[in-house]
Design goal:
The structure is a homodimer.
Chain A lengths: L4 E4 L4 H5 L6 H13 L4 E3 L20 H11 L4 E6 L6 H9 L4 E7 L7 H9 L3 E7 L6 H13 L4 E5 L8 H14 L4 E5 L7 H10 L4 E4 L13 H10 L9 H12 L11 H9 L5 H12 L3 H11 L8 H12 L1
Parallel strand pairs in A: 1-2, 1-8, 2-3, 3-4, 4-5, 5-6, 6-7, 7-8
Helix pairs in contact in A: 2-3, 2-10, 6-7, 7-8, 9-10, 11-13, 12-13, 12-14, 13-14
GO molecular function (chains A, B): 2-isopropylmalate synthase activity; 4-hydroxy-2-oxovalerate aldolase activity; manganese ion binding
Protein name (chains A, B): 4-hydroxy-2-oxovalerate aldolase
InterPro entries (chains A, B): 2-IPM_HCS-like (IPR050073), 4OH_2_O-val_aldolase (IPR017629), Aldolase_TIM (IPR013785), DmpG_comm (IPR012425), DRE_TIM_HOA (IPR035685), PYR_CT (IPR000891)
């Protein structure tokens, strides 16, 4: 049986849910707990990847390079990874993160724009990093189109292409078909991964389907902490995979459950949930990290967040267009 | 295409999550919102069904018959149902609920004990009620065994047998196989229903699979309010079913989303979630309404709730054995 790797992205995707306010001590606690639990890879960066600490995406409380250093210092076995979006994170950022001890990277692009990742993969290979590629908002392409984009990443040096359901939009078969198509295109040459969100309640179910359709890397976060309705909770993934007899290495299920409850939960004041805003994101396919931006705009401009998100969906905005949220709020305000 | 009926059980299964403290005004608000949204059936009773307001199950704040009356008074189109567990609710309770205006009932037994429901179905038909049958903890039987129990209910006069995943234990295919087997046994004579919980994150996914395997009644609750990790959220079910082109009558998806956010959420201080206790329930198959009982015993006896629940799972207790939770806590306390 193929071995599956459970990746934890509490300290990257989860960063959205805490508005990028992680402290070094929090990062150390999470790494210690999951390293002890046998989790083999953990991603640490600003929620929007290296260089994300900006006015547009929201400023980090702590320099992400210091968080990476802390994570590397704390990790005994787990590999520390970072996320990088071309146009946000630079080659210099990648060098610095590698200098701090990161050993894997994930290069993320909108699902139709894999070609902008080519130089970053070259850089990553030059730095000796394990490479992953994120095809974000992957519901925007049909399975065949997504497979073509995956091919571009693999040809550039990507070792695992992730079908990333950034809006929690995919429902069961819609996720399975995409994973299968990507697997058929790149399987044998590179791995396939899946990164699920909970907006329509399919984070865990889609992850299981992904494994059944060829994925060998699955992302999760403690308590599902993450953008929008949150990610597939890693403690639930571990519990489900164990029941289904899936080999996911030496991860201790109970230790992961305990890490969620005893380590992560006490540090977070607001856990993500399937609330109206995030359900609408899943319904119309809006990038999950827009949720808190839309809520802030809602407070400021007196327009319901779910209406802002629905309009953002109609306009088809993608990651990087956070600044347009305010424009949408203003336009809706004008209509009311 | 077959029409699916979405049933709401916020005011019955959801009652567990508020420790049976619903007021008449709260019931009216929820019924008004979901009646306006086009939901065709709503269940109103103590969480453990008629007569559940006891020391063993927890006392209701308001007499459930008065809650049923209020719901009936408020409902313009939606049919008000009640739950009844043989041995807890009596024939007299059923008569009284019918007198108050309830027009449907659901008779619930442990999955292996459908035969104890026979007299209750006879009574229900005599009272002119629509009938549903709940096979609780349905993971405890294989599909073929469950189908045999469903047959007993149908022969007694049950019009819809529900595969009830009372522990949120079932994972995808495990739910689909049970619905399919029940459908093959009773389809054409009676309907099949599915009642999902979220413990392992499969409440919505299993409900969709249930529809794809013959179920025509699906239970949900606003915001997933319910025992354990909560139920499949009805606003998410509606959103997902709409995308999949499923006919679920004239239910207005946006109105259900709004009811969850604007009506239900403000009245609840603690929403159910996939926390450690409820994940363990799904992992080992413990009746969901045991969660708050175990948490109370945990506080009183100083034993972790998840350990109590795991031991309850090992001992195989079923609904009605709430009093044994304290015994388990005492036994674990003795070991520490």
């Amino acid at each position: 049986m193929t071995k599956i790797r459970l990746n934890d992205t509490t300290l990257r995707d989860g960063s959205h849910a805490v508005r990028h306010q992680y402290t070094e001590e929090q990062v150390r606690k999470v790494v210690r707990a999951l390293d002890d639990a046998g989790v083999e890879m953990m991603e640490v960066s600003h929620g929007d990847g290296l260089g994300g600490s900006t006015f547009n995406y929201g400023f980090s409380k702590t320099n992400e390079m210091d968080l990476i250093s802390a994570a590397v210092d704390e990790a005994k076995n787990t590999k520390i990874a970072f996320l990088c979006l071309p146009g946000v994170g630079s080659a210099e950022d990648m060098e610095e993160a590698t200098k701090r001890g990161a050993r894997a990277c994930r290069i993320a692009t909108h699902s139709t724009e894999a070609d902008v990742s080519i130089q970053h993969f070259e850089k990553a290979r030059e730095l000796g990093l394990e490479t992953g590629g994120f095809l974000m908002l992957s519901h925007r392409l049909d399975p065949a189109g997504l497979a073509k984009q995956a091919r571009i990443m693999v040809d550039a040096g990507c070792q695992c292409v992730f079908v990333v359901d950034s809006a929690g939009y995919l429902i069961g078969q819609e996720a399975a078909d995409r994973v299968k198509a990507v697997y058929e295109e790149i399987g044998g040459e590179a791995q396939v991964g899946f990164h699920g969100h909970q907006n329509l309640g399919f984070g865990v179910a889609n992850s299981l389907l992904a494994v059944q359709n060829g994925a060998t890397q699955i992302d999760g976060t403690l308590y599902g902490l993450g953008a929008g309705a949150g990610n597939a909770p890693i403690e639930v993934l571990a519990t489900v995979f164990e029941r289904r007899g899936i080999d996911f290495g030496d991860v201790n299920v109970k230790a992961v459950q305990d890490a969620a409850e005893d380590v992560l939960k006490p540090m977070v004041s607001r856990l993500p949930m399937m609330d109206r805003g995030s359900i609408v994101q899943g319904q119309v396919g809006v990038y999950n990290s827009f949720l808190l931006h839309a809520e802030r705009a809602s407070e400021r401009y007196g327009v319901p967040a779910q209406e802002i998100l629905a309009e953002v969906g109609r306009r088809g905005y993608v990651g990087g267009q956070e600044d347009m949220i305010i424009e949408v709020a203003l336009a809706l305000q004008g209509q009311n």
